[in-house]
């Protein structure tokens, strides 16, 4: 299935301490790790990966719990879906591939994993780009009615199991389609073929439970880790891109939120919604090539 969307890429499965990570890899040159968000998989990068592979060795994993990666139990306080655990997976993956140092791109949940990785493994991350997010702690601390309404799943998915899992199970396709179409502002940016692949993964009850665990971790243990870091800053240069028509871009001064977390920050809004890589691939590529 992957080759249909990512010609020239091959798939691999790499065992880490806590999971088995499924990934696609292609191209040659310096290593570039790209982490997807919810409710997507590594295929969210399919419009830009081949072009990036002309200059980089591009590694596209499914985060633990997502896609065709394994779905461990959440553990105490959802620790196995903490961004620290999810980042550790990807560090192990890159070391297994022979890449102790690399450039890093993260969209949505993948951006949150990337943020934690850049703090926990500063020697590994050369440059970091985050797509359509403000820092997790910032967003929770500044929650208001508008944010809670637009991003209701931040508060729905964190409810104790099995409430959200059971409710989504009633009609996974409806929930997934509404979630994606509600965030994407460029009609047709997610093709039906790609949606079908996302849905294949979302139909798995273990995936839906893992996704809830990811969000539960983000509202508990991840916030503890973020608060413990206090005034620590990301050392690597950081590029923030976001959709001018999306919730994050409309409710936050995105660059200012990242300047509170990193020393060297640049970026801008693109004319799209939540998924620049699917909605505005050419602009996204221009920004990435200039930054990387």
UniProtKB/TrEMBL annotation:
Domain of life from the UniProt record: Bacteria
Stored InterPro entries: AB_hydrolase_1, AB_hydrolase_fold, AB_hydrolase_sf, Epox_hydrolase-like
One GO process term, biological-process aspect: acylglycerol catabolic process
A molecular function (GO) term: monoacylglycerol lipase activity
Residues of the AB hydrolase-1 domain: 30-281
Cellular component, GO annotation: membrane
Pfam families (UniProt xref): Abhydrolase_1
Residue ranges of the TM segments: none
Record-linked SUPFAM superfamilies: alpha/beta-Hydrolases
Keywords from the named record: Hydrolase
Name used for this protein in its record: Alpha/beta hydrolase fold protein
Record organism: Aureimonas altamirensis
